[in-house]
Design brief:
Largest sheet: 5 strands, antiparallel
Strand content: 5-15%
Number of strands: 7
Radius of gyration: 24 Å
Number of domains: 1
Helix content: 10-25%
Low-confidence stretches: none
Distance between the termini: 83 Å
Structural class: alpha+beta
Amino acid sequence: MKSSKQDAFTLIELLVVISIIAILAGIALPVFGEVQVRGAQTKALSNAKQIGLACKLFATDYNGNYPMYTDISKDPKVSATPGSSSNDVLQTLMPDYLPDKSIFGIPKSAFCKKVGAGQTGNKLGSQENEWAYCLGLSDTSNSRFPLLADGFKTPSSGSYSTDETDFGGVWKGKKAIVIRCDTSGTVETLLSTNHTVKRSENNTKNAFIAGPNDDPPWFGTGVSVLNPAQ
């Protein structure tokens, strides 16, 4: 008498397989999302470093000064107008030091909703730029001073938002891309208490706030932080 051979899976076996697949998917999806974020941060850091290098090149032509004004067709120390947003100032890097403005945008940033929407020319309009900028620095400033960073929730606080749909929330208040005055750059971990960038590894004061009683002094006079135009 021949024994019957069972070719199909039982219900219990199918449920076990489905459960294993669900567990593996639950593990893999967050990891995949994190990889995507890290990739976006790496690309954004590369773009920001290029902007920092362009500022350095600009300084070689303007007595060591990083960009400060909206119009460099005139003598930048006499008759040019100071910028009121980082867009006003950084656009002076084009086209002589940067080829176009695509480098200023970051996908998903609330500051960049108009990037790629058909705007042309070398003017950085509102919502076309991610980067905040420290106005008033030069190539001889302290190398640890920040020069560029992701735009802030409010520039006066130098802090970021945990809401990725909010201004200053592109990295959810966990990370920020910072280019220092010597044009070095990193993806820095923010302080969890107030979502700010610390000045150095051993100094947890806000890197973008110039406290009047700091010792040694930080920034000093004549330096201000400009946010991107909203």
